[in-house]
Amino acid sequence: MENADGGKDGRFVITPPLFAMQGKKENTLRIIDATNNQLPQDRESLFWVNVKAIPSMDKSKLSDNTLQLAIISRIKLYYRPTKLALPPDQAAEKLTFNRDGSSLTLNNPTPYYLTVTELNAGTRVLENALVPPMGKTSVKLPPDAGSNITYRTINDYGALTPQMKGVPALTRGRPPTGLPRTLH
User: Which residues form the Pili assembly chaperone C-terminal domain (predicted)?
Assistant: First the structure.
């Protein structure tokens, strides 16, 4: 397990830690909270589960030229407290944007992580972003980027939300320079 920053994290225990699996079979991994519920209760927490699959070696083919690959799957694990005020399906529409020269800052006032994809400034496609709860993330903005911001997010089911128009964060009651004030 790793935390959101990629550092090793022992707050969860995965059992079994190692197992042999036959072809066309499945196994269940249990993820146990070892923190006694000490994670933040006002927002989601993000962890990464790394699962490594190492193929078995057929002893009869040891002398053959073969290529075997070990595959590591990196899976997002969100811990979501039960009593968050805002429903998760309303989080994407709360995202606001600040344009500052060569960067666009995505501001997330919600208690949920937002995975932003298909982010566009005019006709320019921008990089995808993972915006932490009650936090912000910046992406590079090309000099010829348009002023209309559109985006989609990935919901709890892994599906894309409908395309939304970016809402600029207000600065003293006015939208920041270069972004029109738009509604969803």
Answer: 106-161
